[in-house]
Amino acid sequence: MSIQVPFFEYPKLWSDDREEFLSIIDNVSSTGGFILQKAVSDFELELANYAGVNYAVGVGNATDGMEIFLEAIGINPGDEIIISSHTMLATASAVKVAGGVPVPVDIGADNLISIQAIEDAITSNTVGIMPTQLNGRVCDMDAILAIAKRHGLFIVEDAAQALGAKYKGRHAGTFGLASDISFFPAKVLGCLGDAGGVLVNDKDLYHQIFQLHDHGRDTDGEVRRWGRNSRLDNIQAAILSYKLKSYDSVIVRRRKIAQMYQERLGCLEELQLPNAPSITSDNFDVYQNYELQADSRDELREYLSRNGIGTLIQWGGKAVHQFTQLGFDQVLPDTERFFERCIMLPMNVFISDSDVDYICEKVKQFYRR
After folding, report:
1. CB 21 within 8 Å of CB 192
2. 90 by DSSP, 3-state: which?
3. Given its phi and psi angles, is residue 273 left (phi above 0), alpha (psi -120 to 50 degrees) or beta?
4. Intervals of CATH 3.40.640.10 along the chain
5. How many Cβ atoms are within 10 Å of 60's Cβ, its own excluded?
6. What is d(CA 290, CA 199) in angstroms, rounded to the nearest whole number?
7. Which ranges in the chain belong to alpha helices (H)?
8. Which of 21, 102, 160, 167 is positioned for an S-S bond with 92, CB 3.0–4.6 A?
9. Which candidate, 284, 309, 323, places its Cα nearest to that of 363?
């Protein structure tokens, strides 16, 4: 009888901490503090302290977060912002909603935004660069910062998948003017619904972001501009505060699983694995996802499915520039090749060492048939 290893077992998000969550919900609800109360301000402070920034703002979701910080910075019609095409469509749509033009570019050897592609994409209309810190790994930020300085561009980060990841000891989401973090249930720090955060250091920009997320009201309650409603829910904030306390142990476990995959699958020439966990390299990865490239990808996925193993091809197997109905016409060969071969194996704290052994054995069996 085969073992069942779902890609992500959503019911366990609730069942594993059910009693604690019920207590949290009761504590928040019994006070009537549902919107913008102490649970939210407490979590915002905890999040800012964790990431090493001056301010954090809880928002409804990470996409809202990107739209809000871009609007706060100020984007004019025709302003171009360079992004990786290997990212969720939300990265591009946030630029579009804020009034700018998203310019997707190719990926480099690390499957993150290509440094050379950034240089090649800069025009007289370029105002910023928004790298995506994807799958829990931070881009080569030294090179990106140097490009931005040389051309007078701002940097913002899509750090939705990278809370806790570091580059040269510095947290993802802290290299530019602002960044977004996602707390979608399947994220490394996930809650029980949609939720997000914005990280920011500059005080004035923080107040602009705060105003935009709450109908234009500032921290003192005074309306100072037009805004929207994208406030982090108090119950979700309290759940995130609870989970943040054990967050480092979650990262340790995910890095252990990544190391197990590396040790068991690194011998297969048919696979290109993500970077192995390291404590000596510039990057400290948190492995939001374990995304690799595989020969005969579709056949491998079907074989694993028949053996009870869930996998995922991210974003339906399309890079941003491949949504041609949205007006993109770029040809990005490295990204296109990647999306013909990419696949994600289960990566979460719900899978056991024996689950990982089983997954790896079935992958080996596929290629050794």
Report:
1. yes
2. helix
3. beta
4. 12-244
5. 20
6. 25
7. 11-15, 18-31, 38-51, 62-73, 89-97, 115-121, 141-151, 203-213, 234-244, 247-265, 297-306, 333-341, 353-368
8. 102
9. 309
Tokens of 51: 């990431």
Give residues with Cβ within 8 angstroms of 273, minimum separation 6: 261, 262, 265, 266, 292
Q: What is the largest CA-CA distance in the chain?
A: 68
Place of tokens 């390299």: 281
Query: pLDDT for 25-72, tens place per residue?
Result: 999 999 888 888 899 999 999 999 999 999 999 999 999 999 999 999
Alpha-carbon span 314 to 87, nearest angstrom = 9
Q: Which CATH architecture is the domain 12-244 placed in?
A: 3-Layer(aba) Sandwich (3.40)
Rg (C-alpha) for the chain, rounded Å, is 21
Domain with CATH 3.90.1150.10 in the chain: 248-368
Q: Compute the distance between CA of residue 332 and CA of residue 111 in angstroms, rounded to an integer.
A: 12
Tens-digit pLDDT profile for residues 213-247: 999 999 999 999 999 999 999 999 999 999 999 99
| CATH T-level fold of 248-368 | Aspartate Aminotransferase, domain 1 (3.90.1150)
C-alpha dihedral (129, 157, 311, 290), degrees to nearest 10: 100
> Distance of CA 320 to CAs 119, 215, 241, 356, Å?
19, 31, 33, 31
How far apart are alpha carbons 236 and 234 in whole angstroms? 5
Structure tokens at 290: 């374990």
192, two tokens:
């029980």
